[in-house]
Design goal:
Length: 200
């Protein structure tokens, strides 16, 4: 063990190195009080800003053709399993579509449901060439439906000024496209009025 003088010398030298700006008198004063508080200045770490991941812009999506269906994939038979999945999804959503179910309740759920895979028919339109188009909805955008017909033709049908019908287990529902100008993700939160007239 070191002697007391050597210990004092070591502590004095240590304090001198640790606190170079402090005078010898101040160091000696701290030693006489037997309490030593070493000053420590931690370096402040610069906060790293989190970069937000940005998705593609609408222009980039168009250029990359992200939502386009390749011609060889435009076949009605390919999407029949999707329609079967959609029917099961609607049955689960409407608790089985029982005969005693209230039509307005089913209609309300269908208006908010995902329609990808549903078979729809254009029943009324301001443009006569759209009337009678029947097929599976492959894509739904804010203003249009993309429908694949039994003839393996991909039709882009606007929602505006068109009335669509869809049938499932004997229940027929009509969709007024002019009141349906929303993206599929936005419809789930919208409140639809079940009554009203639509002018075509």
């Amino acid at each position: 063990p070191q002697g007391s003088e050597k210990a004092k010398t070591f502590v004095h030298a240590f304090l001198k190195r640790s606190m170079p700006k402090m005078k010898d008198e101040a160091i000696q004063d701290m030693l006489t009080r037997k309490a030593v508080v070493l000053e420590h200045y931690p370096k402040k770490k610069a906060k790293q800003k989190r970069k937000k991941t940005k998705g593609f812009t609408a222009k980039q999506r168009r250029e990359l053709r992200l939502f386009e269906i390749e011609p060889e994939q435009q076949r009605y038979a390919i999407f029949l399993p999707l329609h079967e999945l959609w029917k099961q999804y609607i049955r689960d959503l409407c608790h089985g579509l029982k005969p005693d179910a209230q039509p307005h309740m089913i209609q309300g759920k269908l208006l908010k449901a995902d329609l990808h895979g549903a078979i729809v028919t254009v029943t009324k339109s301001k443009c006569p060439s759209y009337v009678g188009i029947t097929g599976i909805i492959l894509q739904e955008f804010k203003h249009v439906f993309k429908i694949i017909t039994k003839e393996d033709k991909l039709k882009v049908v606007p929602k505006l000024n068109n009335v669509f019908s869809l049938e499932l287990d004997g229940f027929i529902s009509y969709i007024y496209g002019s009141k349906f100008l929303l993206r599929a993700s936005e419809r789930s939160a919208k409140k639809f009025k079940l009554k009203g007239t639509i002018d075509l």
